[in-house]
Amino acid sequence: MKCYIDSVVVDSRIPADDIRELIPDALLRRRMSRLLRTAVATAVSCVGGVENIASLDAIITATGWGCLTDSERFLRNMISEDEQLLNPTPFIQSTFNTVGGIIALMGKNHCYNMTYVNRSHSFEDALLDSMIRVADGSSRNLLVGAFDEQTQSQYRIMERMGVFRSQSPGEGSVFVSILSEKSQSSLAQLVRLDFPGNSLNETEVLERYASSSASLLLFNSYRDKGLFPTASAHSFARAVELIRCGESEVVVYNEYLGATPAVSVVQCVG
Amino acid sequence: MGVVVTGVGIVSALGVGVQSNIVSMREGRSGISAHPSILKTGNILPVGELRMTNDELHRLADIPVHKHLSRTALLGIIAAREALADAKAEPSKRIGLVSSTSVGGMDLTEGFFREFMKDDSAGRLRDVRMHDCGAITSAMAHYCGINAYTTTISTACSSAANAVMFGAKLIEHDVVDYVVAGGSDALSAFTLNGFKSLMILDRQACRPFDRSRAGLNLGEGAGYLVLQGDKNSAPNYYCRLAGYANRNDAHHQTATSAEGEGAFLAMAEALKLANLSPREVSYINAHGTGTQNNDSAESAAFIRLFGENIPAFSSTKGFTGHTLAAAGGIEAAYSVLSVAKGFLYPNLNFSHPIEEFGLIPNSEFSEGNNIDCVLSNSFGFGGNCSSLVFVR
């Protein structure tokens, strides 16, 4: 099982002005929370514009926390308004597959549309689905994305849980364009995904997953982005960037807050 | 490798376990009550509620009450354990879990938030530890003896059908030997008020496919299948999962297109994968929520796919209510039993067909029918439409 990475976009690289071009529908844009706006803009940028959404044959998203701002807004209104006359918009937008649904809607694309909400493995689960679909010929042109947002309440709750004593908070979106075949624009290839049942140290990871001594290891580098469930997608983006800059192989190992690890191996396109 | 179903587990307003669900439907007894009695809400609206408190569910599952699991996890654990026991899964093999939920641990979060809104140092943290969807799967894996790959899907009301679909892929690609796949959702004030704000809740018992239908009744529950490869399973499996598809309606965030494009594509693709023609379908367990929009769109899609020869169909949501992420799991389990035991389920509260379509759902419970192929439909927000095809 392997597939080709054609493009990777990280939200921090999208200037605010560009969001207006990437999401031309002003009404839609205004209703969106910051997370929705950023994630959808990242997705559109990754495929190179709204007009290219139509050619996708799978849209697979991943989020650990989902649309917290909208969930919280609806919850607050429900409690403060005593369950009366509530605005449905935040409820609609609190659904975990909102981003995937909006992308399909913008491109009028009827293809496979899936959302993984599985803590720190959400992004890797979306990658596994992609690799399986490429392997059995179900999909050839896939968009895979991960997003999570930080809110004040959630920051406060995690702070009370003591999580930020050793880690800093974080958030972000990453979208990856995956093709079944090698192309002129292939940046890297994803050759392996694994979910080992127990924790490994750096030596063990390299022994088990590196194909040569030239292999580079990103060991829990998701921490650089701060603590959020899909931070590992940012390590994956960095791995692709390292391959683009000349590395031959990068092993990405992520073990998040006591969860079992996830490992992906990215190689240069031979 | 073909995928077969070797275990089923159900919890719904009809009761705990497959048997109590089937008995209720045989007797035509709905699980819908006039208003919630366990759920804390000021809304007097009909719901399909399992009349057991969280403490009672802990005891039923033999889990200490102080573990303080969310209701969604408890419902899921009970149904998944039934499915695993039914399949007689061997603990030495790789047993994976693909679960799904739309509310996660919201039933506990709601209580927390009432306190937290007044003072952000207040509220018990143990009430938010299970908020996210993955937390439910993680608890289920822990209490159900899952020893291999697990994941969680959340695509609103089609979630569990998608979990079954991805579960099948994991078997086909030899990622696991067994997979428990389905979904769980507890009633919550969040979802009840959410659907109320969309003005699609019926103040009376829901009437799927009826001319006078006025919305859905929310329900709760969990439904799981155990899937295995046909090469590894015992020969006495329930049925095969021969086809599946997910397609997007790409019409509106919450509403379905009038012609039911997503529903049509999902059913057609699933049958194509199963190598079956529409005329080979014996029964459809419809999504049939009882909303104006869904039942019209689904009827239009039926007519487009089946023409004059519409197979027997019914919505079982008049019994269970719409159990959201669990619906695709509960209804997949009903569909599996339909193929295996020849059951046809009644569509409660139907009296007059929708004029435009004239479709009449199956109205009586019957058994011993010759059912070769059942289609199970689940459609959700975000245009997410899924169909599963079970065959003998």
Describe this structure in words.
The complex is a heterodimer of chains A (270) and B (392). Helix content of chain A is 37%, strand content 21%. By secondary structure, chain A is an alpha/beta fold. A 9-stranded mixed β-sheet of chain A has the order 3-2-4-5-1-6-9-8-7, sandwiched between helices. In chain A, helix 10 links the parallel strand 7 and strand 8 (249-254). The model of chain A has no long low-confidence stretch (mean pLDDT 96). By secondary structure, chain B is α/β, with parallel strands linked by helices. Chain B has a single domain (3-391), classed as 3-Layer(aba) Sandwich (Peroxisomal Thiolase, Chain A, domain 1), CATH 3.40.47.10. Chain B is 33% helix and 20% strand. Chain B has helices at 18-26, 54-60, 71-87, 106-118, 133-144, 159-172, 189-197, 261-273, 292-306, 317-320, 327-341, and strands at residues 3-12, 15-16, 32-33, 47-48, 95-100, 150-153, 178-185, 218-219, 221-229, 239-248, 283-285, 312-314, 373-380, 384-391. In chain B, the strands form 2 sheets. In chain B, strands 1, 2, 5, 6, 7, 9, 10, 11, 12, 13 and 14 form an 11-stranded mixed β-sheet that branches. In chain B, strands 3-4-8 form a 3-stranded mixed β-sheet. The chains are: A alpha/beta (270), B alpha/beta (392). Chains A and B meet through helix 4, helix 5, helix 6, strand 3 and helix 7 of A and helix 4, helix 5, strand 6, helix 6 and helix 7 of B.
